[in-house]
C-alpha cells in the first residue's frame, strides 16, 4: 500500500525504457495509482496496519477472540532472517524470469559492437556477438546481468586486446 510514495519516481522505475528488450511475458494491466495521504493527511503506517488488521478480523474471525496487538518482528528472528535472505538471493530475484531477448549496440573507439542475448530464468540461453572477437556461445549458461566468470572464460577464447574484453564486459553488464 502506498502511503506517501514518490509516484513519479515509482512510475519511472516500473516502465521499461529499453526498446531493445523483448519479453514473452504478459503485459501488465495499467491501473490508477494514488497515495493514501492524498485522501487523508492523518494516515500513517501504524494506522494503516491497524485498519487492515481490524478489517481482516471482521471479515474472517467475526465471532472469535482476537488479540489486537500487531507485533513488529525485528532482525534476529531465525524465520524472518531466513525469509529475508531468500528474498535477497539471485534465485528469488532472477531465477523465475520469463524468457526474453535483449538487443544491444555500442560504439567503442576500436569499433561497433552488438549483442543479441536470449535469457530464460536468468540464464543466458543464446548469444550472438559482433564487432569484437568473442564467440557468443562462451556466454551461454552464464547468469544474465552478473556474467559471473565471464572474464576468465573470455580472456581464454579472445584473440584480440584484453582491454577490449574489459570494455565490452563493463558495457554489457551496465546495459543488462
List the helices and strands and how they pair.
Blueprint: H1 7-14, E1 21-23, H2 45-60, H3 78-88, H4 90-94, E2 100-108, E3 111-120, E4 123-130, H5 150-157, H6 162-175
Antiparallel strand pairs: 1-2, 2-3, 3-4
Helix pairs in contact: 5-6
Characteristics:
single chain, 2 domains, Enolase-like, domain 1, 176 residues, lipoyltransferase activity, alpha+beta
Question: Could you explain the architecture of this structure?
Answer:
With 176 residues, the chain is an alpha+beta fold. The chain folds into 2 domains: 1-23 and 33-68, no CATH class; 100-175, Enolase-like, domain 1 (2-Layer Sandwich), CATH 3.30.390.50. Helix content is 35%, strand content 17%. The chain contains 6 helices and 4 strands; from the N terminus they run H-E-H-H-H-E-E-E-H-H. Strands 1-2-3-4 form a 4-stranded antiparallel β-sheet, with helices on one face. A hairpin with a 2-residue loop joins strand 3 (111-120) and strand 4 (123-130). The longest helix is centred in the first third of the chain and has 16 residues, at 45-60. The two termini are 29 Å apart.
Amino acid at each position: 500500500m502506498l502511503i506517501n510514495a514518490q509516484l513519479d519516481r515509482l512510475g519511472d522505475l516500473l516502465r521499461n525504457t529499453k526498446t531493445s528488450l523483448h519479453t514473452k511475458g504478459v503485459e501488465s494491466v495499467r491501473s490508477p495509482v494514488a497515495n493514501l495521504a492524498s485522501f487523508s493527511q492523518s494516515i500513517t503506517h501504524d494506522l494503516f496496519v491497524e485498519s487492515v488488521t481490524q478489517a481482516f478480523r471482521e471479515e474472517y474471525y467475526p465471532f472469535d477472540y482476537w488479540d489486537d496487538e500487531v507485533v513488529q518482528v525485528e532482525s534476529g528472528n531465525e524465520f524472518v532472517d531466513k525469509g529475508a535472505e531468500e528474498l535477497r538471493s539471485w534465485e528469488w530475484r532472477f531465477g523465475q524470469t520469463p524468457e526474453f531477448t535483449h538487443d544491444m549496440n555500442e560504439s567503442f573507439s576500436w569499433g561497433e559492437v552488438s549483442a543479441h542475448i536470449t535469457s530464460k530464468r536468468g540464464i543466458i540461453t543464446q548469444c550472438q556477438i559482433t564487432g569484437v572477437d568473442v564467440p557468443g556461445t562462451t556466454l551461454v549458461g552464464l547468469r544474465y546481468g552478473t556474467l559471473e566468470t565471464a572474464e576468465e572464460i573470455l580472456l581464454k577464447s579472445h584473440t584480440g586486446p584484453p582491454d577490449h574484453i574489459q570494455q565490452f564486459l563493463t558495457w554489457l553488464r551496465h546495459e543488462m
